[in-house]
Amino acid sequence: MRDCMRPDFIIHTPGEITRIRTAAAKAAQVREHICSLVRSGMTTWDLDELAGEVIRSTGGTPTFLGYRGYPGNICISINDEVVHGIRRKDRFILNGDVVSIDVGVTFDGCVGDTAKTIFVGGDIPEDITRLLKFTESALECGLAAAHPGGYVQDISRGVEMEAKRGHLGIVEEFVGHGCGTRMHEPPDVPNFVQHRRGPMLQPGMVLCVEPMLNLGSKKVYVESDGWTVRTRDGEPSAHFEHMVLITETGTEVLTRV
Ligand code: MF3
Ligand code: CO
Ligand code: CO
User: At the top level of CATH, which class does the domain 14-253 belong to?
Assistant: First the structure.
């Protein structure tokens, strides 16, 4: 414990890990299902309603709904929207859009949190291919850098190095996090290297690694709706997120399909 009484990290019990694994598997399944439902011409309101049904069909509930007053089942962030895009009846998904889907499923008191970005429509521009390819590989590099006895900073370095290889802007204001019996647990998992190496990675820790990378500059702002995060330069952004469990012998990604 630090002086503020917030622990630096959470070690989950074997019983909790079993339930976190289940919630994470459901979230992964829901993520893929929702991505398969995305069509040009639908509104983000309709997609969010469908997402609510898909989440409840797993026996779980939408983690985000009501979280700090969040007014949706999932987050749907299009083009220059980075994260936390809210459903709207007048927001149409169109061909050529870059759509980020972030899903939270609460099941049996535990949380699965995972995200993916897709391109809607046929001909994908080369710069969007680079954006999606490197944001996903940055996530994979972060996950690959995690091992028991290492540090949170190793994950950050893995993400940052790959993001830089793809010449993408790294969002700094929003970061990955511990996850398990609550959506946001300590520690923070930044997508860039900071001065402190962070807590040691230990068996029983569950972390969300979630690069938010921009085709242009790293700068973002929060829109007047109080939620939607957008790039300042209007260039598109991508977001991929997995949950990883640190085990005695290595790691286990909990949100693969
Ligand atoms: N799922 C997001 C994350 O990856 C947080 C969503 S915030 C909410 O941390 F308000 F939409 F719930
Ligand atoms: Co998320
Ligand atoms: Co998250």
Answer: alpha beta
